[in-house]
Structures are given as structure tokens and as C-alpha cells.
What does this fold into?
Amino acid sequence: MLALLAFVQEHAPAAAEAHAPSSGPFTINGGLILWTLVIFAILMFLLAKTAWPWILGQVEEREARIKAQLEAADKANADAQRILSEYQQQVANARAEAQDIVAQARTAGEKLREELVEKGRHEQAELLERAKREIGLERDRAVAELRREAVELSLAAASKVIEKNVDTEADRRLVQDYLAGLQAKPQ
It folds into this structure.
């Protein structure tokens, strides 16, 4: 090919001088155009057989690589959207769960408060009942003590009256029966 180019360069000026009296930048040289087209065709043929397949392979490979990267980017974007929606769902679930926990705690607190109030009322009722029993027992003891003192006073008064010491058990029982009879009679 270089030989052909060298041959064209040697004969082109001679052919140009023979056919054209003047040379300039705007003059047309038919032989030069013909040889340029022949060399261009040969060069295109060689490039089509050797370089173009490699260049087209590289371009197609690059196109496939870019396409794969775009698909990977689309897949990554879809994954990111999926993960974002899952995250948003988890956040919504966590909020709902937190609200449920707060509601349960509030319900448990109210229930505990009601139980404590009920327990307090129950203890208050028990204390009141115990106090009533103790008061009743104390009243019964006081009444028994008053009766005993009344019997003692009655016996003392009777013994002073009769000047005799009435201290026997039968006399005590007689006075107690009398007092019980007085108590049993409606007033």
C-alpha cells in the first residue's frame, strides 16, 4: 500500500504538469482524484475486513455493558423502592404497636387503679366491721362489768339494809336473774 502511495506521489506531479498549465489550490486534477478514490476504496476494504469487526465488537460490548448497568441501576432502584416501602411499613407497624402498648398500659393502669380502689374499699369495710365487733364486745364487757358492779352494789346496799352479809352464790344469782328480768321487760 505504501508502495502504491509512493508511486502516485511520483507520477502525480508529472501527470499534472502535462495536463494542466497552471497549478493552484483550486485546480482539479483528474488523475489525482482517481488514485485518491482507488486508495480510499482499498483502505475501506482493508478496514472493513480487519478493523471494523473489532470496532463494532467493542461498540456492541460497550452497548451491552451500558445496557447491563442500566438494568442493574433499574433493579437497584426497584430494590431501593421495595426496601423503602418495607421500612415505611415497619415504621407504621412500630407506631401502631407503640400505640397498642400505650393503650394496653393505660388500660392496665386503670384496671390496677380500680383494683386498688376496690381493695381499699374492701379493707375499709373490714376495718369498719372489725371496729363494730370490737365496739360490740367492749359494750358487752362494759354492760357485764356494770351488771357485776350493780350486783355488788345491790348486795352491799342490801347487806347494809339488813345488816347482814349476803354473799352467797345463790343471792348473787337471784340478783342477776332479777336484773336480767328487768332488762327483758319492755319499757
Summary: The chain has a mean pLDDT of 83.
